[in-house]
Amino acid sequence: AEDFPGLTGLEGRLVAGFDVGRKRDLSELAIFEEVGGKKECRFLRSYDRVPFAEQEAELRRMFSILPIARLSIDQNGIGMHLAENLRRDFAQVVPETFTNESKETWANDFKILLQRKDIVLPKDRELVAQTHSVKRRLTPSGKPSFEVERDEVGRGHADRFWAVALACRKERGPMPGAMAEISVRILG
Questions:
Q1: CB-based contacts of 64, cutoff 8 Å, min separation 6
Q2: pTM of the entire predicted model
Q3: Average pLDDT, 10 consecutive residues per value, the chain (188 residues)
């Protein structure tokens, strides 16, 4: 769809991801429809140097038009104010903190969807390039780290990929946004 009103004929649940940027990076919005265990990309939009007030107004307009069940939004750094404002007014907003651990979880969730062919993506060269630009490395302590080289045209830091990963992340635990907790009991 070109704009929110163009999303018609919806049969499933809508989930969205928003990676916040302003000057060096783009803000990216991705909306997916969940139907029968599959996620289909219904909307992608880039915001290039758009003031935060306009980004917030655009997301509020989205909520007034579409039945978004969950919006996972970057709350790191410059995204904190936007995430707080939207969370205050919309219960379906889930502020997300970008850490190496959370990025690994989201990237793995996305990879599993791709492997199972449970995701339908648009033919979008920028998304493909950004997906391939994300590199998983191990730190000297053995923890995962995700690195992305900035492209030569200055069009981002895999922002579209992270917006898609946020939208497609698996909802774990009793509250969306909470990280999964694994416990082990040793017998004997």
A1: none
A2: 0.84
A3: 91 95 83 95 93 95 96 91 95 93 92 95 90 86 79 65 94 57 57
